[in-house]
Amino acid sequence: MPRIVESLSTINSLLRTGLAIVVVAILGTGAWFGYQAYSAGDRALQEKDQQLASIRHELTAKEELLAQQEQLLRDKDQQISALHVDLRAKEEKIQKLDTSLRLLKVNHRVGWLTVLEQDVDPTTNELFTVGQFVEVNDQGQPLGEAKQFRIAGDVVYVDNWVVKFDDEFIERAEIDRSTSLVLFRRIFGEHQKPNEGYVLDTVGTRPQAYGSGTEMSDFERRIWDEFWTIANDEARARALGIRAAHGEAPSMKVRKGKSYKVLLRASDGLSIVPDDASPPVTGKPPA
User: Fold this and answer.
1) Helix (H) or strand (E) holding 259
2) Cβ–Cβ contacts within 10 Å for residue 183, how many?
3) Which strand ranges, in their side-by-side order, compose the sheet holding 126-135?
4) Residue 208: its pLDDT value, please?
5) Residue 15 to residue 21: CA distance in whole angstroms
6) Which H/E stretch holds residue 6?
7) Residue ranges per structural domain of the chain
């Protein structure tokens, strides 16, 4: 009996041992599988973190590139704006230069000289010329009455006072100083003394070419009243924007039956050129 009990006890012990081994094996296997699953999950998580970090890095790089592109665009916009401003400035400068050059070369018709008669005087056997002079506007229309003259010879002098302003006033077309001013004094021939010539404009009165139905300005009156004072005072002339003020007397060897335009350039003095057009006033030589 005791031997049977001992055998049963041994069997029971073996069963408990085997069961323990099985439990340990099961727990070990579960732990191993759990570790494997944990390791796999951890690796997957690390891979996801790496992928996320890579995406973030790529996104940061793209954001920096985008910021650089946006800055380049802003720089280009600023350059384009600056170029537009520079272009407008250059266009304005070109227009101003073009206007300046055009104004500086403008010729104003201020007088018309017509030869009415030219012949040899039988009493003196010398050549004489009879003509008429009339001031005109830019359209060639007469301003006032034509004045006749008779000179010995065939060379006619047109004596005048001329005022030339600095180019900047002409370029800006400034009122009163947008063109040279001229006061016709007299006409005389090469065999006459100037003070024996035929009077045209009276000193102290406004030249007809600048009348235009308005009163003489204080500026103009001062110029003509103080002409020679201004001409001899550089500081005073400069204060008035005057480049030069002086007398001059362009001349022309005239021909019978011809007419001549007397021109005043905006930036210069008088010139006399022949013109085949009909004169604005038809004159007849004295009987």
Assistant:
1) strand 259-265
2) 23
3) 147-152, 126-135, 107-121, 259-265, 270-275
4) 56
5) 10
6) helix 2-104
7) 1-83, 105-275
